[in-house]
Write a structure and sequence with these properties.
- This is SpoVR family protein.
- It comes from Halocatena salina.
- Pfam families: SpoVR, SpoVR_C.
- InterPro entries: Spore_V_R, SpoVR-like_C, SpoVR_N.
- The structure is a single chain.
- It is built from 28 helices and twelve strands.
- It is of the alpha+beta class and 665 residues long.
- Among the domains are: 159 residues, no CATH class; 156 residues, no CATH class.
- Strand 2 and strand 3 form a beta hairpin.
- The radius of gyration is 30 Å and the shape is globular.
Amino acid sequence: MSKPSTDRADKQRIAEELKPVVREAHALAGKLGLDPYPVNYWIVDYDEMNSLVAYNGFQERYPHWRWGMTYDQQRKQRQFLGGKAYELVNNDSPAHAFLQESNAMADQKAVITHVAAHADFFANNQWYGLFTDDPNAARMLASHADTIESYMDDPEIDREAVEKWIDNVLCLEDCIDQHQPFSTVDDWLDETPSEADINEKLEELDLSEEVLGQVFDEEWLDQQRETEGVTSFPIEPEHDLISFLRTHGMGYDEDAEKAVEFEDWQREIMELLRREAYYFAPQKMTKVLNEGWAAYWESIMMGEEGFAAENEFIHYADHQAKVLGSPGFNPYKLGKELWEYVENVTNRREVVEHLLRIEGVTWRNFHDTVDLDDVLESLDPDPIVDRVASETLDQLDPADPRVDVDGLERAKAGEIDVDRFPWKVLTYDGIAERHYSLAKPQNRGFLAQITQNDVERIARYMFDDARYASIEEALENVDYRAGWNRMYEIRESHNDVTFLDEFLTQEFVEEHGYFTYEYMETTEDYRVTSTDVEDVKKKLMLQFSNFGKPTVVVEDGNYNNRNELLLSHQYNGVMLDVEQAHQVLKRVFKLWGHPVNLKTIVKELSENDIEVARRRDSEPTPEETGKLLRYDGENLSITDLPWKEVEHLAATDVDYDTKPDEWLA
């Protein structure tokens, strides 16, 4: 049984205690280069936190049974498994973060620093900008809740029908085109020119009859006659199923046993749920990137800058160990490790580029002429910024770009406890040098790990003719900010798929012990199959492509010229669960009004194939075949398809469906 919630006065007292903590945390975040949305912090009790978790971090959502189910799961996880919601923040401007009143001060500080980094990611990652440049998600979701609740309360509309309709649409909530900017379905329809629009434009052009005759000649008219009555659409596969169904679909009236036009409330609910799917898409697309980013900066602030007081540090260390050490796939751990790797690789490259500009040093003789252990000693941060204290203030030069002049004056005047908060007298430049990654104990072997091939690769792309006379002169010009600057660049443009694709390397895989495993048909168990980076990368990236869900698109809205819907599964080596696909087709049928078809590819193995492979101590190779699933409102049928009809669905390698062309620049 949980303890009683604190009353309003107790929550107010906790909020007052945390005000200076929030102020100092966000000031430190700014010094580190973070630029977050403003954040409103709320003190909540145990039950309120469970409700917020169920509502995806918001206080108001539309009425639906799934929120209660999620709440119950969260409550039982805490009660029986010891799970705890340490932090909860939503993507909004201002962002809203929730602190559980029963947490210790060390936990509250960890959450506040973690949230500051999340709010920075929300504000600056460009994938979030695809939904809107000015998010006010709390207001949007509250408005959606009011609208849907009004339909449920309408005596002319059956409440159960509304719930079922929501269920039908939610089965497709990940079937959107998350790589394109959000626009409403109505906006899209308004932009599609009608025949009258085309005629009006032609009139405005004031073309002569001769020109019109040349453009719209008899051959063109004949082509139109040939295709008259055949209306296959869309021209290209459509990823946004909800948009397509809202525009072209019909409801299925079970009593009349026929397709009928959507009611206005049905169309509006489809669009509201579609809008929410687009809003939450960036968070699903950046789980590793975003959680790793927050875990990295939380660690810098709480541990390395001592934001956790001495009497709080052990508690915080235990807190972070639980978060980073939780079993199974852990986005916090993988993300933090990858961000640290990016930082180290960037700093190492910066150093090597300067060393390669020394007279007489080339990639061929690099390891013979440069003592990397001596180089590392020279890269230790300047003690002036590394060991700032009240007794060393006179050593700080106000003209030094690493020194915050205003902070230094306030520290000398006794307004700043510089022994507790040394970062207050330093600028971004000074703090970056203070936290230089290659000089940290856990990373001191990283520079020496560079291979001859790595050095050659770096030298191949160097076009700067600058030359240094000595190692000392070269190292004086190393930019201690390089790693952080690169991290901020990546934070702006990447999602999980592109992040893993670009920065997961064999070096990282070996250093952190990543591997792949597969189910063995012959031994009927799971076994490690590879530690090769390409295999690990494929395995990981498949978890993030299309939110880890199958990519299904609309291929034809008039399949076989019978008003049937044809969906296609973009097969990337992972089969559909046929039973789940059947359940989804049942719901899509309710949104289309006519039979629904789905093309896919399956892997087939016979018992004989498995037995032969077992005798040879190998794994059988399954045969890939095309299948067509069809649901007509009553029955599901599965028929074989010739390979030529599904060949276009099969990826040549692994199709990660990362981003549109304009993001590749």
